[in-house]
Amino acid sequence: MDSRGDIILDENDFRKIYDSYYLDICRSLSHYTSDLHAVEDVVQDVFINLWRNRAEIRVRDYKAYLLYCARNRMLNLLRDNRRRLQLIVRGQADAESPTCAEDDGGIDQELVRLVHEAIAKLPRRCREVYLLSKEEGLTYKQIAGQLGISVKTVESQMGIALRKIREEVAGDYRKRGGKLPSIILTYYFLW
């Protein structure tokens, strides 16, 4: 017990929670990515955090708490990976940085080259809309105004561009024997 009279999670309780919820949380995160290693890493981090902070954490429903924490960590990981890829594709990241190491699930120069080739192969309007959105950071409304087209047309062109890039990169990368990190294609090209 702590000074407030609350019961602090002990090893036996922690083991029961871990055994009861580990697989459920992994299954839940598998909806965000097919990268099993990323899912397991996130779930392990959540349980480590629970153990390290057990004296401060006051929870009535551990499953809901753990699912909430795991989902947020996964979304943060995906967001960070997307940002890293954007930097690399734009040529602003150092190719020798740890984020590019293949054993870290990062992005290699072959992937960067394939992304650039796929963008270059897009139809003119798709490429223009895509670059204004991804490179210039313009909103769909801003793109529509700049190009004199409707927001719906921008949405349609972005959908076409994203699909074509995704298909082109995944197909070329796999054809050449590379193992494409699914977390990258899924979350960079869908956003």
Give a verbal description of the structure.
The structure is a single chain. The chain has helices at residues 11-29, 36-52, 62-89, 109-121, 124-134, 140-147, 151-175, 182-190. The protein is mainly alpha-helical and 191 residues long. Helix 1 (11-29) crosses helix 3. The radius of gyration is 21 Å and the shape is elongated. Mean pLDDT is 77; it is low at 92-106 and 186-191.
Strand content: under 5%
Dominant shape: elongated
Distance between the termini: 46 Å
Radius of gyration: 21 Å
Q: Mean pLDDT across all residues, rounded?
A: 77
- Give the class from helix and strand content and strand pairing: mainly alpha
Q: Report the order of strands and helices.
A: HHHHHHHH
SS summary, helix count: 8
Quick one: how many beta strands?
0
Portion of residues within helices? 55-70%
Unreliable spans:
92-106, 186-191
- Biggest sheet character: none
Q: What is this structure's SSE topology?
A:
Layout: H1 11-29, H2 36-52, H3 62-89, H4 109-121, H5 124-134, H6 140-147, H7 151-175, H8 182-190
Helix pairs in contact: 1-2, 1-3, 2-3, 3-8, 4-7, 5-7, 6-7, 7-8
Gist?
The protein is mostly helical and 191 residues long. It has helices at 11-29, 36-52, 62-89, 109-121, 124-134, 140-147, 151-175, 182-190. The model is unreliable at 92-106 and 186-191 (pLDDT under 50).
